[in-house]
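Recap quiz, item 2
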Amino acid sequence: MKQLKKLAIAASLAAALAGGLAAPQAFAQAKEQYFPILVYRTGAYAPNGVPWANGFIDYLKLVNAKGGINGVKISFEECETGYATDRGVECYERMKGKNGGATMFQPLSTGITFALTEKAPNDKIPIITAGYGRSESQNGAVFGWNFPLIGTYWMGADVLVQHIAKKEGGFDKLKGKKITLVYHDSPYGKEPIALLQERAKMHGFDLSLLPVAHPGVEQKATWLQIRQNKPDYVFLWGWGVMNSTALKEAQATGFPREKMYGVWWAGAEPDVKDVGEGAKGYNALAMQHGAEPNAKVVKDVLAMVHGKGQGTGPKEEVGQVLYMRGLISAMLSVEGVKKAQERYGKGKVMTGEQTRWGLENINLDQKTLDAMGFGGVMRPVQTSCLDHMGSAWARIHTWDGKKWNFTSDWYQGDEKVLRPLVMLTSGKYAEEKKIKPRTPEDCKK
Amino acid sequence: MLYRENGQFKTTYQADQQIFPIAQDRWGVLLLIAFAFVGVPFLVDEYMFRAILIPFLILSLASLGVNLLVGYCGQITLGAGAFMAVGAYAGYNFLIRVPEMPVLGAILLGGATAAAVGIVFGVPSLRVRGLYLAVATLAAQFFWDWAFLRIKWFTNDSPSGNVSVSNLNVMGFEISSPLSKYIFCLSVLVVFGLAAKNMVRATIGRQWMAIRDMDVAAAVIGIRPMYAKLTAFAVSSFYVGVAGALWGFVHLGSWEPAAFSVDRSFQLLFMVIIGGLGSIMGSFFGAAFIVILPIFLNQFLPVLGALFGMEISTATVSHAEITIFGALIVFFLIVEPHGLARLWSTGKEKLRLWPFPH
């Protein structure tokens, strides 16, 4: 016992010493654009978090392989959050000031986004939430540092309703229909409710809400209720293991998968892979892109990153849905920096504040996207100071038992429905926080 | 040699009854507090404040509260997270619904609400004890998780159930910089820690301990179990509620019920068990162990790997962190089942005899 104690003391002393000595020299690189990456490679949501993180990092590696952002190399570092808000905040605090300051943060968790929204304005670091986060943060006048680029949950829910209306033959046909929202009981899952209620009022469909507790493996009661109510459609707002569980339960209760529509976080390979044939016919939103194994950018990654043995994660997953989501998120951040360089000096390292200007002035037309290898993957994106989303297009893809196929045309979120809701909610936030919304003059600064 | 009370004669009852009868202890603690107020701000950076010290201070306060109930009164609780949530959400509602409400007032009222709720959920303790009580308090956890997720009024109709506060102002001082937050939390903790230390030495604390050691015997010598148990629940929940309000207001700024999930309850209970049941000092040790160690491991392992020329992936670090953390818990519980606080007092005993142990 005594020896054990001595050993423990010696070990902890050595640890403290080594930590003190080695920490400062571990990260000493100059003139590099620093991208901190919040990831979750462990925990209940890891199956979905891992491909996203791999895509994100592979794209940064690709940019470096091509010579960096106008010559500025990207340095990056991961921090594991495990989808927990307090660990996410700790990671943010740890990384925000490192290596000359963080360029941006992408928390990949609505809970962490909420916490960072309070902190980002003080630190002047943009928070990019491509396809998640709080929907009202589209209003850049109030949420100056949040960027829900190319998709918010309200926009997504709006597209789903439009798609169903089209299937039924017009919005007037929605009257009396029963739609059930099965959602992850967290800020993430609750986001679409406000918009769906608005739409339900407009078109007279009947919306019922069924929450599923974290992490979502217990859904027996939920699907029992669905079997009793017999809704016409089920919207699935799940994440991680909740999605595959929902599909299995749907199979068990015999609810037709063709009438199930997932959000874009419930429409990737990890969600349906285990269910396989049982998920056949299940639809999900595609946040512009789906699985894109044939895109040029994917081929570039395979050739220039994985081909050189520097790939992150398994090669087979390159081009899958969540991998692409991570890749596009990284691309948008890099484009923000690139744009900022146009104004503040090419070949220089941008600060968080300069990057924000870049992100507010992203203008990617189809030609640029095609040239970057994103042809067929996504549509043009144009942001502004007041619109931090930049694009409101989405489509539907369907699982055929083996892969995801696009099964609809493009839809655009309806501004007439979205805008008032965004303005109302962000206005309430501004009032509560005593924020003076930015005017067009402020934006030019 | 250095740490010995020889020659310190107590000539008054007051001197005999003071909190730290040994002069070295007294000066040590005073120096520590002075250092925390004056020295620490010069030594640490923003990251230390925001990510380590502030969470440590707030969770110390919470674990102090749990220790009063579990360690001193012997009533096992698994609902501490819920009482933190009640403190945070009640404080939030007082702040936004009552005009001109000062922040400190809202935090204390949040604690008071948690105390009231604690009494209600403490009622089962009059009938059931031990593990059965733990299950009963677990009900509090699930009930309040449900309430804050479902009842819109509590979250001021926020569409996603998330609430936030900002522009905190305590008696003219703006609580926004990391330093001001640290000093604020530290002041609260010092006041509450002193109160706790005194409470457990006073009538009420002795009643709690009597109930803990044997409640039938305590009742026979004239201690009312109902009064003792419910006051323990009330005081403990007050502490935990204030900690919850601080966690929401000062540390997170914006929170959802998941911040106070059942995991938090377990975490607090583990802090108390590892730190030392029935020891004020132990609450701090436990909080330090649970808050700081995982973060330390998380940052230290990649550095250690780099020393040996290995690159450790994020996932491996995270798995190793959990494994080592778990192993250390088992190790400490085997070496010293009475918690880190007992190791501390053993150390002090040894120091008294040093350098001539018999």
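Chain B has two domains: 1-7+21-42, 44-353.
The longest helix of chain B spans residues 225-252.
End of item.
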